[in-house]
């Protein structure tokens, strides 16, 4: 059964589905932000539907912790994007 686990060094310690590299936050984003149906996520990733709902329940039971993970990821993404060269500066160096 797809229990929710956190392992230091795997996905930055984020809660995830056991024996998978699918985080709870990622599942919630697929369903709530990208509009994927839970059944579709279960089929696409070979998961039991109960596992999807277990992850959703975990997310809402730990909303502050999940918000913290999302904010940290957003910050890392913003930092990474800002470190990328602008297209004009790439052309100038060529």
Structural class: mainly alpha
CATH superfamily, by name, is Winged helix-like DNA-binding domain superfamily/Winged helix DNA-binding domain
User: What fraction of the residues are assigned to beta strands by DSSP?
Assistant: under 5%
Any idea what the CATH architecture is?
Orthogonal Bundle
Q: Measure the end-to-end span.
A: 54 Å
Low-confidence stretches: none
| Major sheet details | 2 strands, antiparallel
Helix-strand pattern: EEHHHHH
What does this structure look like?
This protein has 94 residues and is mainly alpha-helical. It has a single domain (4-80), classed as Winged helix-like DNA-binding domain superfamily/Winged helix DNA-binding domain (Arc Repressor Mutant, subunit A), CATH 1.10.10.10. Helix content is 62%, strand content 4%. It has five helices and two strands, in the order ββααααα. The mean pLDDT is 87.
